[in-house]
Amino acid sequence: MTSHIHNHPKGRKHGRKMRPARLHALNSQNDKYAVTISNNTPRNLPPQKPLALEIGFGNGEHLLNLAALNPDTGFIGAEIYINGIARCLHRLADDPLPNIRIFNGDCRLLLAALPDQSLAAVYILFPDPWPKTRHHKRRLVQPDFLDLLAARMRPDAALHFASDDIGYQAHTLAFVLAHPAFAWPAAAAPHPAAVWSAAPPPSRYRRKARKTGKSAPHFKFTRRLRSS
Hints:
The protein is an alpha/beta fold. 32% of the residues lie in helices and 21% in strands. It has one domain: Vaccinia Virus protein VP39 (Rossmann fold). It is built from seven helices and nine strands, in the order αβββαβαβαβαβαβαβ.
């Protein structure tokens, strides 16, 4: 049952008036790439397996790079910001990628509809940190969200998280490490701060963090083979 999940996530859904080319891409490409949910079943998923999910892909730089580098993997991007979706579809109109699909809505609705153990990787990169204490409950990473995520991830699947907000970094570490379904392999290394050696594909959020001198570590957690 998913009746408690509503398609009204907190955050900005619209921006400035779109440029005509992006509006045209949104209107002409949406049916090709959009994932919809009918009778709690996702429609138009990418045919490639395994599947990976990026939650909150912004303008799609990271998502598009990953999909281009991994043509045999299916990628789903979940995003509520329609202007970002339009920018992503504009790029896809020029350079189509058959292994990408886009879900415009609350990622929890999509996760609730996906089959168990269907995801090989999940990316949550630079989510809204909701820095005020009274807004911490709005942060995406919460125990009930991790329960849902764990059910949809395959054993040994990777959960990638990045943030330039120190408070959200600590928040995520606390909740993920307290969850029985997830492990942090880097915690057992001699230098746990070296969370992931491979450089992720660029995004405007990571470039912004570097420009302002903020630390933006990339955490890689794994879905345990068996919850303890």
